[in-house]
Fold these 2 entries.
Entry 1:
Amino acid sequence: MWSENKVRIKDIAEELGLSTATVSNVLHGKTQKISDRTVKAVEQKLEERGYIPDMAATLLARNNSRIIGVVVNDHPKYEGHVFEDSFISAAINYLSDETEANGYFMMLKKAKKITEIVAFASMWNLDGVVVIGFCEDEYQDLRDRIRVPFVIYDGFLDEQNRFGNLTIDDFDGGRQAGQYLKEMGHRRVLCVADNEICMDYLRYQGLCEGLEVKAGFMKIPMQAAERELFYQERLAAIKNYTAVFAVSDYYALELMRFLQKNGVDIPDELSVIGFDGSREARNALPKLTTVAQDNALRAKTAIHLLLEMINGETDAQTVCIPVKLWVGDSVKDLKNLKEDS
Amino acid sequence: MWSENKVRIKDIAEELGLSTATVSNVLHGKTQKISDRTVKAVEQKLEERGYIPDMAATLLARNNSRIIGVVVNDHPKYEGHVFEDSFISAAINYLSDETEANGYFMMLKKAKKITEIVAFASMWNLDGVVVIGFCEDEYQDLRDRIRVPFVIYDGFLDEQNRFGNLTIDDFDGGRQAGQYLKEMGHRRVLCVADNEICMDYLRYQGLCEGLEVKAGFMKIPMQAAERELFYQERLAAIKNYTAVFAVSDYYALELMRFLQKNGVDIPDELSVIGFDGSREARNALPKLTTVAQDNALRAKTAIHLLLEMINGETDAQTVCIPVKLWVGDSVKDLKNLKEDS
DNA sequence: CGCAAGAGGTTAATCGCGTAACCTATCACA
DNA sequence: TGTGATAGGTTACGCGATTAACCTCTTGCG
């Protein structure tokens, strides 16, 4: 119905009076036992006929698929929009490039449960999986059920090295922010987070270390709807500080907008610093200074770790990705008040 | 190495002393010729052993793949970040949901050339393809080379109905913006666009129609680097208007930030209205009023049109998606100066 | 002269599933 | 008693590619 039929190895072989094995061997560079003339002839015919391998047949015939699955937790908090999240979409973008660069295909999927990942890996004979956004016990569960290696893209500190696992150095990120704020002359700094454990607390501790003085800590509500009122009630308290460090760009930008709406000039009256290095941070007014993660590096590392695990070259291990401060316009220089530009 | 081996139809059949054909028929609901006892037994065993079909084998055995490809033009202007673009990532998100809801798989790919799409469709036996971001002659080329139906996600007006093609009603979008501005008492309105043809011009014409008066038109440079200076030189001219309509949220937000940086209050001194309904618009300060596209509807329509084409139920045709004004805080009410909250 | 060792292939099984064609036993009915 | 329908399956091939095992013809060499 649409254009002519698909070209198969068999067609190529028949047209040249050869067997399919020979054509297949040429395709895979196993030309030791084939004369140069034949190789040339096959290559030319393949080119001429525009041969494209059938993946279904290829997958079925060999025992590795060269497909890597990327599975993202379709968490309710995203309300069905996971792939639009800036961290996730960056992950997808870079993972796509990186799998392709290594000669693999990527298959993308949202999942709510671990069993979906297992089924996904099984049905497509995935060589490995990158998982994003699940929690620790789910990963333990996954480890017991799945038959291929996987890497946790947004992992956590795990001294036992149970998983292929990527983390960032949260403490160092906080420290860099703290040190920068100190250099800019800030001493009264508030840390804003929605909990006081794990990575958020590491970031806070790093902040204090960098500042060389203890920062304030404010635990904000998880529910977006509650936060506006929460901030409203604490506006005066917040204005007591010269700078606010939020544990994510999301919170930083939200707070920045709240403050601006309430007539607080950023950074003149209050400095704000975020964490993530999102595009939103770079597009904000003023540009949000933030502890930036290198998403490209993270994806590269994830795929390389996964491939090594697939090839049995390495065991499950936690790899730490460095972070680096990105300077925008949201932090005021208290020490050095001459302006440039 | 990782957990036990995969369960095949053959295993199920052997354990029950049946043939694989019977198991396969149960799996596909072809149970007319199978006794209830056998059906129950098979179903139970499938459940018990956790059978998951092998897609490679399935694809190979039947002549449709139930895979839909989504191919996005990896255009240089995105600098390798296509999947992070807000329009694109929304498309991916909704298309993923919609393919799954219809029992299809989605395969995602960046491509630079039409031939990559053709090869992609061929190697995976795609049933159909959704393409995003290429231009008209490329689509014509694609039509001649590909063997399966495709739908253009971000299409254009095409009276000849040569393609499966989605457009929005650009004229009506402009009209809605114009009408709203008129209701808000604006008469001196400037339209900002980077060209004066096609959809941008339709939006401009719609704007004038809605306003019931001719709007100004300003063609801005394509190059991001040039625009700041361009605006700077025309700041006074721009401030002569009471409202600016930009043909995209991207331009609207960029202009809004520029104006704010230059001390112009939005919307008190100047109103701004955008086009697209992006997340950035909703998160801006002030929230950007914008002509919103319904991305969920677009994806749903794209998949339905594609499936109809796949099933031969419909020919290639252009489908128009309605747009609807989303009211933020970036347009001042000039007529009715009493404020509510 | 006879045998081994390449060179240059070919044959045929296999991957897991789908499906058209075929088989067999039972029962009804003229 | 023979015939045909029906229920309840089974057999066997094909999908397209990979690959181990197997040919056959030269040529070299003791």
Entry 2:
Amino acid sequence: MLMKTQVRDQNMSNIACSKCHTRKICLPMDMTEKDINDFESIVLLRKAIKKGNYLISAGMGFNAIFIIRTGFFKTSIISPSGQEHLLGFRMTGDTLGMDGIPTRQHLSDTVALEDSNVCVIPFTEIEKMASVSPVFLNHIFQLLSRELVRENFNLLMLQMSAEERLASFLQNLTKNLQIRGFSSSEVLLRMTRQEIGQFLGLKLETISRMFAKLSKSGVVSINRRHLHILNSAALQKITGIPN
Amino acid sequence: MLMKTQVRDQNMSNIACSKCHTRKICLPMDMTEKDINDFESIVLLRKAIKKGNYLISAGMGFNAIFIIRTGFFKTSIISPSGQEHLLGFRMTGDTLGMDGIPTRQHLSDTVALEDSNVCVIPFTEIEKMASVSPVFLNHIFQLLSRELVRENFNLLMLQMSAEERLASFLQNLTKNLQIRGFSSSEVLLRMTRQEIGQFLGLKLETISRMFAKLSKSGVVSINRRHLHILNSAALQKITGIPN
DNA sequence: CGAGTGATTGAAGTGGGTCAACCCTCGTGG
DNA sequence: CCACGAGGGTTGACCCACTTCAATCACTCG
């Protein structure tokens, strides 16, 4: 079933990580030319996901991890009480599906918020490669623990006030956009107020009000999904987190 | 400096994991006799930690992971605003210090809440063993992702009401005690109301009030640190999480 | 053009925070 | 052996940040 939706990319005879624009983000810094070639050889597939579609569903069997080439995703879980909670948003170069490693079963949903494109990396290949290349094994550890750091941060965020939460969300978002070479002052939000709220543990009305507040104080200007960061220093001041 | 506080256990000529009572919790199920013997050979040290002392400080260099033989710990981080937030409590058989793997530097503090005893496992040995034993490599993955699952759960918890948070804290605690063969109905709390609050994102007064509420409705009885779970089915009902 | 979804804004309600007083227990030292 | 102090816990009164409910607005897309 998975195979049916996977298609070999038509635009390239083979997948050249060494020439990919996300290289700097999805591969470890200290990989040699040879390491990269080895890695290329196990990234055999691309997969396109339309906006609104699931790349991963909770409970689904785990057999590959994904790296986002282009697009934007949200990851979420349904709480026992039936509410959806967002674990985070992922963009170009981010890894998806790591949470399936332990149990060989995915724990969370991953949905495309715009038409997207991912590389598919079979986990058996990853294991093989990790067992012969310490550099690569270390990279996998790094990826896993990057997740841990992210979640730690989210935990801290949930203890802040509504304004601080939204400010750190925006700070984080723009930092990630900047790292990837996108504009960090002019942003098209890919998610609804409701989704931001589900991520930050707030109601959509509160998100709207906090945007209004940040707007009134001249920190941002916002019109529906079009966001301008006018004063990123002020954002830092609100969160207390240096960039 | 680390060496100074590490002492070879005096009571045993060498450390026998195969005979240790925490074996079922800290080692993977599918380890062969040989695997266990190999593992034993790299667990060379024990370390005793007095109540109130740090086993790990944030920022400290990472070179070993620890497994709790006896005792009880809290792990915490200081937020940019200077507040202490608890990431969780750890008991017999739990692993400590995994968060240092990525950066080779610990991210959080770990403090003993009672006099405790841990096994010290040098990370270089773990890496060596992981590169030759797929079973062991897999175990390390399992441990890392167990952390991820735990944090996911904490995120969900922070979206619940005060009563629900305390109930799921108690549910979790008693489940863990039960797995380890302790009484799950009669518990001596190792932490203060303040620490429970720092973990659940609530103030200590709120914890006290919620204990009073659970007490009034006959779910628990509590006197300072002495807790009795009178109706664990009611706890489940409050959290909505089956056991 | 009209329906539907997402966003904004106001008014009223409430869960948990804040502040403060008081209690209990335990350890310490006169 | 008792007095004392300190730290942890409880409880009440009040407050406020966020939620809830509801009305209205603004795009977008059949």
